Amino acid sequence: MVDHETWSDEQSTTTVSVDGRDLEVAYHDTGPDENEGPPVVFVHGIPTWSFLWRDIVPAVAEDRRTIALDMVGYGNSVMSDDFDRSIRAQEEMLEALLADLAIDRIALVAHDIGGGVALRFAAHNPDVVERLVLSNAVCYDSWPVEFVSNLGLPSTANLEREELEGRLDSAFVEGAYGEADPEFVDGMKAPWLTDEGHVSLVRDAVATNTNHTTEIDYEAITAETLLLWGEDDVMQPYAYAERLAEDIPDAELTPLSDAYHWVPEDRSDAYADRLREFLSGTEV
Hints:
Blueprint: H1 4-9, E1 12-18, E2 21-30, E3 40-43, H2 57-60, E4 66-69, H3 87-100, E5 106-112, H4 113-124, E6 129-137, H5 146-151, H6 161-172, H7 182-189, H8 195-206, H9 211-214, E7 224-230, H10 238-247, E8 251-256, H11 263-266, H12 268-280
Parallel strand pairs: 3-4, 3-5, 5-6, 6-7, 7-8
Antiparallel strand pairs: 1-2, 2-4
C-alpha cells in the first residue's frame, strides 16, 4: 500500500487538447504492457482523485496494464482557473488522453462523477469500451448531491482553509463504513489544501451539470457492464444501479454490503476480487 505522496511521485503527465485548450493530465500507469486484455482505465469522482484506487490498481496490475487518471481540475492534473471541468469536458479529456497514449480499446472502471464520464464515453464510443464497471456512479438525474452543491457556492472559495478541511473530513471520515484509514483521508484531502486546489475544488463542484447524464442514450452502451455498487450509499443510492441494470443491455448488478459511497475503500479486497473476476471472465 502506498501513501499519496508516493502515488503522486509515480504518476506521469501529458498534455491534451480539451475544447481547444492545452491541458496537463496526470495519470498513474502500471502493470504489464503485454497481456491478453486491453488496458484498464480508472476514473475517479468528486472530491477525489486517482489515489481513490490505491488498493485496487495493484491487484488489477498483476494481470493487466492499468491507467488511473486525474481528471482535469483534480489531483495532480492542471488546476488553473480557466477551463471547463464538466463531465462533458472530462469525456473529451479521456478521449484525447487515450489518443495520446495510442490506446484504441479499453476496460473502463469508474466511480461517482467519473461514472458519468464513463457512461457518456461508453455510449459514444462502443467500439472502444470492451468492458465497463460502474460503482456508485452519477446517472440520470441522481446528482449533484447537497454536499457537492455547497462546495460549488461562491462563498466556499472564501472559507478559511481549516473550515474547508473540516468539510472534507466530514465526507471522508464520517462517510467511511467503519473506521476511516487516516492515510486515505489525508490523501483525499491533499490536493485541495492549497490556494489553487481550494479554488479548483469550488470550480469542479460548480461544473456539475445534470443534463450531461440525462441526455445519455443508455441503451447505446454495448460493453459488457458490471454495476459494482456499495449497497448502503445515500449519495448515489442502490436504486439507481437497479435502474441502470434495466437500461444497459448487457449489465450485471453486484451489490457490496457494508459499503457506503467510497466503496473501493470500504470494501477494497472484495471490490478488487470481483473486478478481477469480471475483467478476466474467470474465478479469482
